[in-house]
Amino acid sequence: MSDKNKKDWNKSEQSGTLSERIAKFEAKTTATKQKHKTRQLPAAGMALAGRVATELVAGIAVGAFAGWLIDRWLGTTPAFMLVLFFLGAAGGMMNIWRLLNGKGMGAGYFSDHREKYALAPTKTGAEDKKD
User: Fold this and answer.
1) Measured in Å, how far apart are the chain's first and last C-alpha atoms?
2) What are the residue ranges of helices labelled H in 3-117?
3) pLDDT value at residue 17
4) Distance CA 36, CA 43 (A)
5) 73-108, pLDDT tens digit by residue?
6) Fewer CB atoms near the end CB (10 Å): N or C, the chain?
7) Is the separation of the CB atoms in 5 and 11 below 8 Å?
8) Is 90 exceeded by the pLDDT of residue 10?
């Protein structure tokens, strides 16, 4: 081993024990992680706002366009356009509600009702066989 390598090794020994160096490193990395977290919060909020706006506009636009096509095909007044406009708006609001409640895009709410209204398990074993 050369003298230069020995000097570097001695410098690391003088800076503290291994546990002290680990503690310093963890403190430094924790501080940088906290800085990154606070920087990412507004971006996440903007992403959520963009998704909410997109869901609502897309529902309205698709409903109105489909209604317009049906009205044009059938040669009717804008009856279908109005009906599908409101259905699209309701669908967009439903998607926003599901997004904010954490339901995702899963279909139905049956699992919530099953857990909430689950029946008590039936007794099995010797008590059932007393007849």
Assistant:
1) 89
2) 3-14, 18-74, 79-101, 110-116
3) 86
4) 11
5) 999 989 999 999 999 999 999 988 888 887 666 666
6) C
7) no
8) no
Q: Measure the CA dihedral 72/77/81/82, to 10°.
A: 180
131/54 Cα distance (integer angstroms): 64
The rounded distance, in Å, linking the Cα atoms of 9 and 4 is 9
Read off the pTM. Answer: 0.49
Mean pLDDT of 52-79: 94
Rg over alpha carbons for the chain, rounded to the nearest Å, is 32
Dig out the tokens for 125 from the structure.
């074993």
The answer to whether residues 84 and 67 touch, using CB atoms and an 8 Å cutoff, is yes
**CA–CA distance from 114 to each of 60, 101, 103, 111, 119 (Å)?**
33, 18, 16, 5, 9
